[in-house]
Amino acid sequence: MSWIFLFFAGLFEIGWAIGLKYTDGFSKPLPTLLTIASMIVSLGLLGLALKELPVGTAYAVWTGIGTVGTALLGIWLLGEPATAVRLSCIGLIVSGIVGLKLVA
């Protein structure tokens, strides 16, 4: 169950990271509230995952999911560049997440 909590914590981390872009410096109320709510849910789920998972592994996987998801959504939603080097680096992060899952 902890891995499920961690997975969803990572998804909500993506939500708040992308949400920050849409808050326009916290000047737009609805995106700001959704971003803050996503932060709270993400941290709450991470806390639940940490009941059973090692902190180093859980934190690395949480940030990895957030990093990969945010980078991919930045490419898809915000028109950020999708160069071969950038996509390869994202692949390396995914490899690290899978490796941590396999050894934890």
Textual characterization of the structure:
This protein is mainly alpha-helical and 104 residues long. Helices cover 83% and strands 0% of the residues. The longest helix has 24 residues, at 55-78.
**H/E element order:** HHHH
Distance between the termini: 14 Å
Poorly predicted tracts of residues: none
- How many strand elements? 0
The number of distinct helices, counting runs of at least 4 residues, comes to: 4
Can you give keywords for this protein?
104 residues, mainly alpha, 4 helices, 83% helix, flat, transmembrane, membrane, Guanidinium exporter, transmembrane helix
Can you lay out the helices and strands and say which pair or pack?
Layout: H1 2-22, H2 29-49, H3 55-78, H4 84-103
Helix pairs in contact: 1-2, 1-3, 3-4
Brief account:
The chain has 104 residues and is an all-alpha fold. The chain contains 4 helices and no strands.
